[in-house]
Amino acid sequence: MKIIPEIIQKLNEAGLKITPQRVAVMQTLMRLRSHPTAEELFAEVSRTIPGLSPTTIYNTLDTFVDKGLVKRVKTDMDVMRYDAITEHHHHLYCAISDRMEDYFDPELDQMLSEYFTRKKIEGFNVTDIRLQLMGDFENKPK
Amino acid sequence: MKIIPEIIQKLNEAGLKITPQRVAVMQTLMRLRSHPTAEELFAEVSRTIPGLSPTTIYNTLDTFVDKGLVKRVKTDMDVMRYDAITEHHHHLYCAISDRMEDYFDPELDQMLSEYFTRKKIEGFNVTDIRLQLMGDFENKPK
DNA sequence: ATCCAGATTGTATTTATTACAAACAAGGTT
DNA sequence: AACCTTGTTTGTAATAAATACAATCTGGAT
């Protein structure tokens, strides 16, 4: 796993101390691309860091969100989820299976960006556009 | 408030019994266009129906969602919210003030619909497109 | 007027998250 | 390298949102 230096750099840039807990949480979040919940992260990170406290997961995630290293994601159905990918992207979501995947589409972003440059919304200043594409996945998860 | 007959018709069409609780919940949800939480609804509906149980709010909302009379809405920040408007629409959301408003834009819907007809997503069948427009409201709530 | 499936209530639980104080450790300073 | 300060982690306890469930009640069909 050679991504650790990259994680350390991220944490440093955010002005955060490098702790095993933070590195492990970020690493797990980057590895699991499934938008895990705090609970799932706790279970997974606990394997590496035995004495881990659930509170640390919440603290760590809150800190990461504060610093913009991680984003919160919420569906209509369940609890808060977290996403280490901070580049602009959208989500595919199937309510039946509660499965969520990332969706990148620069062409779409371009089109939307142009659209909202042209069409102003009265009294509202758009800073970010997020799509949730609802539907069904045709195949099983990888 | 002359929308009650309309509510009764809705409930009937959904095969639900007409109870004061259901009528009041739906009425309140239609009047408050603020995507209230279950708690907010409980507080508001309690004024009309004194002995109301919070459980009834949850039951009623679940039933309404089941029947498609109401939609769940979730933000990144807080608990579940509910929306009586089931016509297709999007949301304007300001994370700082936690304020959310509806946004209707048939032209946008048209454009997106055309886009996803043309551009298929591998392994995913889109049934609904929801935008969350993040940003700031320039004026106070009405 | 009667009846029963479905609705409501209230209590008890569960689950997700936060508050807080004590113990600890990262990393700059000497 | 030992020290110190500040930020971090831990654990317990509290809060809040939502659900389960059994008992009671009621809408509306007959």
UniProtKB/TrEMBL annotation, chains A, B:
Query: InterPro entries, per this entry?
Result: FUR, Fur_C, WH-like_DNA-bd_sf, WH_DNA-bd_sf
Gene Ontology molecular functions: DNA-binding transcription factor activity; transcription cis-regulatory region binding; zinc ion binding
**Example GO biological process term?**
negative regulation of DNA-templated transcription
Q: Which CDD domains match?
A: Fur_like
Alphabetically list the UniProt keywords: DNA-binding, Repressor, Transcription, Transcription regulation, Zinc
What SUPFAM superfamilies has UniProt attached to this entry? Winged helix' DNA-binding domain
The entry assigns this protein to a family as follows:
Belongs to the Fur family.
Protein name according to UniProt: Peroxide-responsive repressor PerR
Q: Organism classification, top ranks?
A: unclassified sequences, metagenomes, ecological metagenomes
Q: Which gene encodes it?
A: perR_7
